[in-house]
Amino acid sequence: MKRAACTALSLLLIASASVAQNKPRQLKPGFNLFSKEQDVQVGKEAAAEVEKQMEIVKNDQLQAYVRKLGTRLWSQPEADKYPYEIRAVNESAINAFALPGGQMFVHTGLITAADNEGQLAGVLAHEISHVALRHGTNQVSKANLIQLPAMLAGSLAGQSIWGQLTQLGIGIGANSLLLKYSRNAERDADLLGTRILAKAGYDPVEMARFFEKLEAESGSGRGLQFFSSHPNPGNRVKAVQAEIQLLPPPRPSPETGQFAQAKEIVKKLPAPKKVPQAAPGSGQPSGDIKPSARFTEYRGGFFTVSRPENWEAFPSQDGKSVTIAPRAGIVQDQGGQVAIGAGFLVNQRDASSGRVDLRRDTDALIKEIVASNRDMKLEQSSSSRWNGEEVIITRLTSPSPLKGETEIDTVMTFARSSGLVFIIMVTPQSAERDLQPAFDTMLRSLQLPR
User: Which of 59, 68, 78, 254 is the most exposed place for a label (fewest CB within 10 A)?
Assistant: First the structure.
């Protein structure tokens, strides 16, 4: 009797494991300094710039068609209920793109190149997936760990978030961090796009077939713009077919019946107009970065720290990160880029796997910081003790945004169950001795939960 019970239990466990292995992989957004509301704001402000640079098709019938197609896709729960909008633009390149928060643009060249509505819907579902998984602002966050928290505070000279991002050198061109994705992001957008297409009643394989068609024709120049920002993750059709096997049986729905008519409208459109792009502004404020001897407490989402009274706190919208800096330490150079020349940053990121490994996750963080900051060098990195626990202290150097200076970035990392907490102390080399006492006071006051 006992053996029979054990056998039954073993079979049950095996069956449970088999079911777990046959479930679709969970897809979720990665590390991000932006809130979802800021994604929407960035997207709307960037979309206004797109409309200045690209020719929106003046044909109500075509616009109604792409809107109907888009609505069918983004009404699926996987699209995460962003306020999506879509416009057709008169552009012969085979492409479509989605800005953070759901602003989408589809090139007429894509409509011409698609063989059927399922292929067009596939590209749109793929772009919707980039929005839902927040790939654009995830990349901007990873590339601008030092400068971005203060930018997102939204209190620098009354600028919009988009205005501040353009000063960081982030635009809406082909190489924009908001629109140029990694192969891993492409893979995840394929998988989520598969789920959206299936629920909307389209055959998801059409998405992969269209991408493969473009790749096969890339030697002739077709699809080059798409693949310059959407690198092929490889084995698309195979991956999509494997994903389909994990989903409930599809419920095919009829196409809109307007695809052929849309292609005819596109054929009759005039040649696209070219709109010149505007150049960013420039300028550089000046002032004293020396901290006062008086300090006041700042309470963040998971920490408290004291700050010099004459330094300002620029928290993220969710309060989980903050840049504390003197106004004169936040500068805009002649190239129009805004950067932190002096300040104290507190932030946290998820571990690269479920559990924090201090050395591994610190190495990953430093690698990202160095890769995203031109001419930055790693000087040294070593373990130390802080309040009885192990921390890693890393010293980085780079040209400072403060004229004629070398910047010293001292990064301290702490392992917590919720993720890797990191402090970045930014100072021009000539002021390092002057700022260090203030940094020491801030570190002594820092309270982090275990």
Answer: 254
